[in-house]
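## retry 2 of 3
previous attempt timed out at serialization; input unchanged, resubmitting
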Amino acid sequence: MGLPEQVMENGPAPSFAWDLANEYPATSIAGEGDLEFARRLGRVTAGRVRICVKTDGAAGLNTREQFEAVSAGRIMLADSFAGALVAVHPLFQLPSLPFLTLGSDDARRLFNLARPHYERVLTGLGQKLLYASPWPPTGLWTRSPIADVQALKGLRVRTYDAGSAQVFGRMGAEAFYTPFTQALGLLGAGELDGVMSSGDGGAGARLWPVLPCFTPLHYAVPLSLTTMNLASWNELDEGLQADIEACAAATMRSLWQRMGARVEENYGRLRQAGGVVAPALSPVLRAAFAAAAEVVMDDWLAQAGDEGKMLLSAFRAAKSEQTTGLIR
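## retry succeeded, writing output
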């Protein structure tokens, strides 16, 4: 099994050599987190565990496929964009629901509330949750700024989940979800006019040569979930399990800490490459997006049932309590 240069170390052969699949680039925040986790675990275990991080879809699998491969034990670990897993379970749509999380603080609060629920669902699917990777707020990559609703009419837009495709469809766009790696192929073939994405790290660099304008939507702060095959996890000794959990927790803390500066770093790279960061949505356009999003939220609540209602209620109560505290 090949090992990436970033995690290769001198020393005896490892007791465990695992692949970690990720559809997104190594320079995305999720890819950086996976490489950091691999390095941490290699050091902590003195090379007993070596992880080959396969970013950019190098495992030959899109997000849904790599997730299913972990359940089946065909690969050990995967970092999977949660929004692409809605068909697996509606709970995975929670972090990418429209206009629910407006910043990293919101996203972290929601993840902390939902984590036990994710863990329960993943256990039923034969997976162990290790850590979550937050993405910068979502935007729309196009050839020119989106000034009004009319600019979206007929626009061929790749979205990152079925819910966002529904929102853009209600705005008049020809919107559909497709995995990021496939979206790049469609973009290269001239079959897309826009891509919904945070455009973080290398993902943005793949988009801006064709779509040099990024319009901040602040649609959501979505998450990717790094998971491990549960049966294999259960076979590990307690000491190694503790090492893995400690490295996962340290990696996640690091990822959340990076979020504060990440947006401006991404914007800076785009401008340096000659791209444009469009102004924030006008009040009229934002109101139109919010109205289009209502049906997505209603549909999700119908699918997620009492569990979804409870999570949304708890999140909104916590957010309201924090806001009240700040006003005081």
